[in-house]
């Protein structure tokens, strides 16, 4: 999947069955579903694939334990089914992870056990280990850093874990292998309509070359997440119920704060949300928060209140207590939630997706979660394809293996870093085969260096920039511009 080659394909073809706006989890899921039904597919992403929320999740493929308490059984059932599908189709990316819910009250232990047995029952428990009650000794053996005072054990359950932006890239590669054309750094500027007022195409700007493209489509699908309304505005369409935005942050700390392979789930924090401590790529993620926002941003910032909230709640359950100085990186994701009741807080809104069709025929997808990306793609395409005159097949994604984009990487090559693996040939591979354009593409999403250790990423940036400049035939001015921009980005990830 080479950007220059894909632009050449776009030069030779300006009419498609399906054009998708947005290269996050939802857009990529739609592209894959459409391509495997033998539709002609174009996906346009304004920034980089999974630049926003789709790279900033809690890294879990799960049914959503907390949704049971809210009575959202349909969502849990769907997500658990999709969890099994992903485990089967992307075994190189998805693995089982165990969680301990520590308890200091016997009634709560029994209550959580009942809830998790219901979770097992809904899932069918064909793949994942069963939940169980454990005593204090076993709880401490699983999570040695759990707070010992008054601990009476807890409940253990199992879910799945993944690398979100890596999953996104591998889905993109799979869609490309099925003849979809995907292009990043391509901004949708406007729509054009026929005499009936139906959207039949768009104008898009290549933000790298400043070349403008006019593209025709039988169906356009808006999968831009928190920016969905801005795309609808280009169609002069306004939702009766606005999209509610919220922000969630994660702190990255050393693995010693768990000191094991199991994570921690705290069902009730001081604001009523759950708190996760998740082992991930040799570090630990602590999160998350739910801060309501008025407007979206591609570069959201954590607040001091959010950071303090996570640290304070984590310290209540850990013997070795994390402090600000222990934070290696902090990242922020934004959620788009469909608001049916203005009085409902964002943390209480359903994570189910909504498919919205404007008067012009533009289809927009709002909400949803990574776990259900395949299902969202299928449902959106089912709705789209029944409304347009093309030949198509049934969805094939339930049994479709996801590409492993790293299968040809030589991991024996010397790393540029002593803390995590990143090599010269790896960087070149990302440029030639995965459309990496700048340092952030490499450090944030193709690798997860910036998410794991902000300071080490800053140290590595000059080396990465030099390798990229040599490969892309760029000069010293380009290197300096890249380093300035990357410094701006890293300021969002460090305390």
Provide structural commentary.
The chain has 495 residues and is of the alpha+beta class. It has three domains: 3-53 and 165-240 and 348-399, FAD/NAD(P)-binding domain (3-Layer(bba) Sandwich), CATH 3.50.50; 91-161 and 243-345, 2-Layer Sandwich (D-Amino Acid Oxidase, Chain A, domain 2), CATH 3.30.9.10; 424-490, no CATH class. It has 15 helices and 18 strands. The protein has helices spanning 3-12, 25-36, 65-69, 73-89, 106-123, 136-142, 164-177, 228-234, 304-315, 373-385, 424-434, 439-446, 449-452, 454-472, 476-490, and strands at residues 15-21, 41-44, 60-61, 95-102, 132-134, 154-161, 181-183, 186-193, 199-206, 212-222, 243-254, 263-266, 275-280, 283-287, 291-293, 329-338, 354-357, 363-366. The strands form two sheets. Strands 3, 4, 5, 6, 11, 12, 13, 14, 15 and 16 form a ten-stranded mixed sheet that branches. Helix 2 packs parallel to helix 7 (164-177) and helix 2 (25-36) packs across helix 10. The chain is globular and about 70 Å long. The two termini are 36 Å apart.
Précis, in short:
The protein is an alpha+beta fold and 495 residues long. It has helices spanning 3-12, 25-36, 65-69, 73-89, 106-123, 136-142, 164-177, 228-234, 304-315, 373-385, 424-434, 439-446, 449-452, 454-472, 476-490, and strands spanning 15-21, 41-44, 60-61, 95-102, 132-134, 154-161, 181-183, 186-193, 199-206, 212-222, 243-254, 263-266, 275-280, 283-287, 291-293, 329-338, 354-357, 363-366. The strands form 2 sheets. Strands 3, 4, 5, 6, 11, 12, 13, 14, 15 and 16 form a 10-stranded mixed sheet that branches.
């Amino acid at each position: 999947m080479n950007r220059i080659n894909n632009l050449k394909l776009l030069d030779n073809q300006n009419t498609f069955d399906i054009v998708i706006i947005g290269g996050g989890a939802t857009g990529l899921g739609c592209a894959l579903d459409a391509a495997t039904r033998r539709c002609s597919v174009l996906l346009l992403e304004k920034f980089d694939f999974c630049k926003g929320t789709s790279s900033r999740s809690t890294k879990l493929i799960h049914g959503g334990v907390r949704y049971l308490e809210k009575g959202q059984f349909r969502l849990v059932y769907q997500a658990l089914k999709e969890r099994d599908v992903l485990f089967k189709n992307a075994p190189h990316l998805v693995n089982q992870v165990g969680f301990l819910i520590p308890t200091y009250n016997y009634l709560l232990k029994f209550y959580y056990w009942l809830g998790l047995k219901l979770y097992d029952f809904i899932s069918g428990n064909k793949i994942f280990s069963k939940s169980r009650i454990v005593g204090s000794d076993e709880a401490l053996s699983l999570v040695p850093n759990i707070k010992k005072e008054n601990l009476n054990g807890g409940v253990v359950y199992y879910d799945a874990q993944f690398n979100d932006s890596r999953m996104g890239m591998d889905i993109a590669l799979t869609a490309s292998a099925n003849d979809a054309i995907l292009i990043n750094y391509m901004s949708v500027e406007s729509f054009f309509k026929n005499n009936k007022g139906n959207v039949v195409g768009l104008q898009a700007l290549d933000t790298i070359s400043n070349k403008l493209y006019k593209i025709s489509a039988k169906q356009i699908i808006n999968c831009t997440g928190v920016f969905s309304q801005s795309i609808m505005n280009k169609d002069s369409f306004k939702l009766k119920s606005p999209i509610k935005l919220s922000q969630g942050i994660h702190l990255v700390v050393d693995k010693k704060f768990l000191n094991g392979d199991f994570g921690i789930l705290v069902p009730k924090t001081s604001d009523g949300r759950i708190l996760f401590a998740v082992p991930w790529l040799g570090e630990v993620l602590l999160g998350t928060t739910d801060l309501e926002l008025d407007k979206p941003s591609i570069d959201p910032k954590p607040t001091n209140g959010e950071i303090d909230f996570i640290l304070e709640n984590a310290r209540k359950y850990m013997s070795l207590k994390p402090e600000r100085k222990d934070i290696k990186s902090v990242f922020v994701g934004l959620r788009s939630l469909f608001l049916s009741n203005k009085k409902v807080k964002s943390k209480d809104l359903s994570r189910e997706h909504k498919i919205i069709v404007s008067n012009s025929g533009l289809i927009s997808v709002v909400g949803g979660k990574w776990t259900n990306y395949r299902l969202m793609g299928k449902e959106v395409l089912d709705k789209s394809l029944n409304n347009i005159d093309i030949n198509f097949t049934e969805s094939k994604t339930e049994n479709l293996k996801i590409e492993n984009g790293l299968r040809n990487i030589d991991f024996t090559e010397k790393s540029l870093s002593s803390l995590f693996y990143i090599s010269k040939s790896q960087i070149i591979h990302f440029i030639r085969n995965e459309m990496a354009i700048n340092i952030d593409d490499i450090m944030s999403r193709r690798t997860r260096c910036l998410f794991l250790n902000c300071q080490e990423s800053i140290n590595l940036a000059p080396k990465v920039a030099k390798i990229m400049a040599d490969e892309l035939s760029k000069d010293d001015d380009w290197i300096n511009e890249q380093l300035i921009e990357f410094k701006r980005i890293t300021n969002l990830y460090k305390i």
